[in-house]
Amino acid sequence: MYYNKIAFVAAESPAAQVALTRLLNNYPHVPPEQAEVIVALGGDGFVLETLHRWIDRKVPIYGMNRGTVGFLMNSFREHGLVDRLHKAQPVVLHPLRMKARLADGSEVEALAINEVSLFRQTRQAAKIRIRIDGKERMDELICDGVMVATAAGSTAYNLSAHGPIIPMGSDILALTPISAFRPRRWRGALLPKHARVNFQILETGKRPVSAVADYTEARDVVEVDVREDRSVGLTLLFDPEHNLEERILAEQFQS
Q1: C-alpha distance across the termini of the chain, in Å
Q2: Run of H or E residues at 226
Q3: 209-213 vs 61-65, strand pairing mode
Q4: Are residues 147 and 82 in the same domain?
Q5: Cβ-contact 127, 237 below 8 angstroms
Q6: Domain of 107, in residue numbers
Q7: What is the bridge-based pairing of β-strands 107-112 and 135-143?
Q8: Can you tell me the mean pLDDT for 67-73?
Q9: Exactly one of 44, 171, 220, 225 is catalytic; which is it?
Q10: Of 82, 92, 157, 228, which has the fewest Cβ atoms less than 10 A away?
Q11: pTM assigned to the model
Q12: Is 44 a catalytic residue?
């Protein structure tokens, strides 16, 4: 697809800002509000921030790596950008929707492209009951935390917590504990993408827990619901020779 209106955005790092200046000087561009495609210069965190910022516009995002990890990014090259955008392959991501109920009775709702994570807030381990589609699956998980991760997010924090890498298009979510104390040998579960996950926080006064959906944090939660929101579609563009499915597959063979 040819894009006539290209916008450029960049992280605040020196490398990203230098790249931004070069691209602005070499290509016609418009503000992001008018763009048909947004080129994001930075790392994975910045491309997630860009997806969140322009989520209502449903504009495709093409990331070029000027950060550190760059799992969701294409390699940076100053020349040939228009042709690369034309040949780029789209990947549609459906985020998780978190609905958290707090101890004061208020609610926090947010979207997460990578994962929804629950964390203990104090030295006391969290105690969490887990229900899947209304059925209790674990009456008490004692842990530092637990998360639900998407396929796109499975190589991020989920992988660091020893969760599985999920290939794109597998229609699976990862339920992964963070430093589980009991059951000590529980390593998590793979869930169908339509699963509705409910976390109930036990002993909330003694063992407070926070919930985080990408950039949104809710503290002192008592109950958290997580599900995939199929009504929201976010489009990332990848060069054909290095698309997201290939990256996820290759990551599973890294030492």
Answers
A1: 37
A2: strand 221-228
A3: unpaired
A4: no
A5: no
A6: 96-228
A7: unpaired
A8: 76
A9: 44
A10: 92
A11: 0.85
A12: yes
